Structure to design on (346 residues):
């Protein structure tokens, strides 16, 4: 999310810091009056974890040529696969913004040449930004992620309305999953968070990482503390309890755009179906309850398609200093775009 509180929590929490894996190098352009005309969060990196884009073949090609893939410049929000504007300008549209986007793309290429950046990446941007960077010499890429659209935003609704949009077999499956949890005495409620709630959530988040063979989760406990101090007013937890025992929870965000964002989930020893309930169905139910337009549960997951989530376009733009890699990347992006056109209709 391109919001100060979120970016501040990432910095205060130690996710983005000088000498770390996300080194901040904010890009600014000033006008003739020395006023900021454009700003965007740019980070220098040596790796690609936390970007949610697949570069492995191109990075492997770099290594086979005896070169390291970095340093890489990335315009993105770390560990946050939420599409939206990445280039902030005083002008919201028209020729003035178009000119500023062209300047931003040109500035990235000049800095790459001067400072020896091996590649530059603009991630989860708008279609307008992708097109502007493509005109400057980047190759654009279109991918997708799954989101749920509320058919009746601002009017409220029930979970049964969501179920009616599913196939008969999936509808019965979802009801069976929820009934299984209910028979175990498990209830899910949405709660705001105190400092202890953020701490307890991180313990569950770490337990989930370790259950998936990761010694420590990508986001440290210090980030949760910073999130509580900088962004707590926008955070909700979906908490699953059996009696007084917490079995699992998800951390979600109320967007200023009228959408609901599922970010992380954690559970030490989750019973079957709890992940679907806490990370997916609870978010849908909350959207219906509050009349929100859309639920974005996070990156990936083909299993979401049968549960009523639809693919939504994700835009990005990329540039490699090596002409061969640039050509290979552009070829892959074209093949991907053709697949989307044939199979999704974009």
């Amino acid at each position: 999310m391109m919001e100060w509180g979120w970016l501040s929590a990432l910095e205060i929490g130690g996710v983005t810091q000088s000498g770390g894996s996300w080194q901040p190098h904010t890009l600014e352009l000033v006008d003739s009056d020395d006023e900021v005309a454009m700003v965007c969060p740019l980070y220098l990196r040596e790796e690609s974890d936390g970007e949610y884009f697949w570069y492995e073949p191109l990075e492997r090609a770099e290594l086979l040529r005896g070169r390291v893939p970095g340093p890489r410049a990335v315009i993105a929000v770390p560990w946050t696969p939420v599409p939206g504007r990445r280039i902030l300008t005083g002008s919201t549209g028209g020729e003035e913004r178009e000119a500023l986007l062209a300047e931003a793309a040109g500035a990235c290429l000049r800095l790459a040449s001067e400072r020896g950046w091996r590649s530059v990446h603009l991630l989860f941007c708008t279609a307008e930004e992708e097109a502007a960077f493509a005109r400057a010499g980047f190759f654009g890429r279109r991918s997708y992620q799954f989101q749920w659209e509320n058919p009746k935003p601002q009017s409220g609704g029930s979970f049964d309305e969501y179920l009616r949009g599913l196939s008969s077999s999936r509808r019965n499956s979802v009801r069976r999953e929820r009934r299984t949890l209910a028979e175990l005495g498990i209830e899910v409620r949405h709660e705001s968070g105190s400092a202890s709630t953020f701490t307890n959530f991180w313990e569950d988040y770490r337990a989930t990482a370790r259950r998936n063979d990761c010694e420590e989760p990508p986001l440290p406990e210090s980030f949760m503390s910073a999130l509580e101090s900088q962004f707590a007013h926008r955070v909700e937890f979906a908490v699953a309890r059996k009696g007084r025992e917490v079995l699992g929870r998800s951390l979600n965000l109320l967007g200023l755009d009228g959408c609901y964002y599922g970010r992380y989930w954690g559970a030490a020893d989750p019973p079957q179906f709890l992940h679907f309930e806490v990370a997916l169905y609870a978010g849908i139910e909350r959207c219906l309850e509050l009349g929100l337009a859309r639920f974005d549960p996070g990156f990936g997951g083909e299993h979401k398609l049968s549960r009523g989530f639809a693919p939504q376009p994700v835009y990005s733009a990329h540039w490699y200093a090596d002409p061969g890699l640039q050509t290979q990347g552009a070829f892959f992006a074209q093949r991907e775009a053709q697949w989307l056109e044939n199979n999704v209709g974009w």
Summary: Residues 94-115 form the longest helix (22 residues). The domain at 151-292 is CATH 3.40.630.30 (Aminopeptidase). The chain is about 40% helix and 25% strand.
